[in-house]
Amino acid sequence: MSELSEVSALSELVEKAQKLDAADELRGKRAEFVLDAAPGDPAGPAGVYLDGNSLGALPAHVPEKVADVVRRQWGELRIRSWEESGWWTAPERIGDRIAPLVGAAPGQVVVGDSTSVNVFKALVAAVRMAGEGRDEIVVDATTFPTDGYIAESAARLTGRGLRAVLPDDVPGAVGDRTAAVLLNHVDYRTGRLHDLPRLTAAAHAAGAVAVWDLCHSAGALPVGLDEHGVDLAVGCTYKYLNGGPGAPAFLYVRRDLQDRFDSPLPGWNSHAEPFGMRPEYRPAPGAPRGRVGTPDILSMLALEAALDVWEGVSMEAVRAKSLALTDFFLECVEAYVPPGRVECLTPLRHEERGSQVALRCDDAGDVMKRLIARGVVGDFRPPDVLRFGFTPLYVGFADVERAARVLGETVGA
Ligand SMILES: Cc1ncc(COP(=O)(O)O)c(C=O)c1O
Ligand SMILES: Nc1c(O)cccc1C(=O)C[C@H](N)C(=O)O
Asked: Rounded to whole angstroms, how far apart are CA atoms 403 and 395?
């Protein structure tokens, strides 16, 4: 590109970003988060946070809420808070706040433990639901590692075999031996969105139980758990749900399966009568059956406060903006990054795209370090992937233009 056409591409994209930001119905949400100044803001220098697919930004009102939980609820009310501050019922109450964000009616989502622990609970329970005749678990061959490790352990514990299958190949791979299928909704590396309705239907047609990991889709796009008849699902709350580092995960058990959910971790919190202190276990009805032990109240209540930012936000608006952000990023990368320097791993088709863009780049580790030094925060996944996550509640189009411009300068240097 000549110097003149480079300048005109730049000013065109800057102008386009301004127009897109002005028309953005979610733009007011950014002020609800603690972030660096936006590009163009005289308070700059601007930082661009594109790592909300790993750790979501802090909603500004959360520290005050957490301070109240610590000082008053814990410091003053102490043990009374289990009842008076609603600590005991927090896992189901907060589950019901996450439920509409993933397309679930109330009473089916419980919050607690890590995603890894919930993958274990869900997968072993799925195998138990499927019955003795089915001797195989199918796991996403491209899965985030923790699901693969846990599936391997779940298979050994339940005496089933484990087969890793590419999500696209699941319909042809499942059969009357398949007990359960564990899939990631969005691939953590490439940002590829898998076809949840089709793959759930394929698992069901084979008589298998479908278990989904929603870590990279919850809060980023409509999931439609009830609508698509998903059996069990898990997800984290520290990415697009902005619950904070180590915020507890969630577990969805479809209502009509709850009586058959036989937890492999039947702790006292999931007992029908937890304070009965009985030697024999009797599972609670409904979502609380997914609980294990004492909930981590401080993290859980930070998450509860963080969920306030969803007030008045539709997941359709979030999805529309997410696709517009990733489309615009790809357009800017095309304009600013020297040809051949990066290769897009994220599908261009909207139906196959989550809310991140992954670019393959030979020296990705070094490039990401230099981007971060210039205030553009994404992340690096070995061996050669640059990941950029776009959280529609707080990322704007000027951020996107700036990130791609700095990327172009960094890899072009
Ligand atoms: C798809 C997926 N599953 C599971 C996890 C990890 O779960 P946790 O660390 O909450 O157990 C992550 C990210 O950390 C992830 O991206
Ligand atoms: N959970 C994380 C953590 O505790 C530290 C650093 C990163 C994470 C992540 O969430 C990584 C993320 N799941 C990924 O997609 O790579």
From this structure: 11
